[in-house]
Amino acid sequence: MDKLKSLQEYISSLGSVAVAFSGGVDSTLLLKVSHDVLGGKAIAVTASSLSFPERELNEAKSFCEKNGIKQVICPSEELEIEGFRHNPVNRCYLCKKELFTKILDIAHENNISHVIEGSNLDDLGDYRPGLQAIDELGILSPLRHCGLTKSDVREISHELGLPTWDKPSFACLASRFVYGEEITAEKLIMVERAENFLRDMGFRQLRVRIHGDMARIEILPEDFGKILSEDTRTSIYDALKGYGFSYVALDMKGYRTGSMNETITKEGKNCRTK
Question: Which domains does the chain have, with CATH numbers?
């Protein structure tokens, strides 16, 4: 628990914080520790947009209500950001720059000294242009600062009795689109409905990637047997067809984070918005 103590001491030194809170594994631990250490001087700010599923928003609201934490809902419609809907490789940069600028304003309005977010050390191992925006805006990342990996976050969350300790990883729905494919409200809703359907069927760790009018389903390899049974296949196919997909495919490599990044060239990854 040395890393937890380090995290507590670091957050305490900040005096007051606005936590960018999505309800995921990382931001839940960050908010819990911030609230334990700073009390009312720690608030949660949660984005509300088409790329953030309603069930995730409701879980975030429920956590704050149960723990007596002040929460501010921040409307953030990414589709209105110039260039975002065209889904360039720096899409996440555009989104984070807009969102965290709004969170900084909310922090100022509430007399909060710092804005903090929940990326951990493992997040440095993938292509994450959003971290550039976070650095440019002076947003702090306590989990990274204190050397916490995803495994550390889950272990400490378990020790603290947080319900999210074994919650599946999640990323915004815009990450389901192939770079260069237009992101629309209609397609975001299709993806959200498809993923909700699969979760309701008992699949926990999953993604529904969208390629034009095709849904590419990523699940854990150990769940292949379940999804390939005739009744399950038929139910999924019929449901996703009803949501607007023409084709439904299973990715044979299985679930992995950032699979859309596999198509980016080294040169593309080095592109940055100035």
Answer: 2-159 (3.40.50.620), 173-256 (3.30.1340)
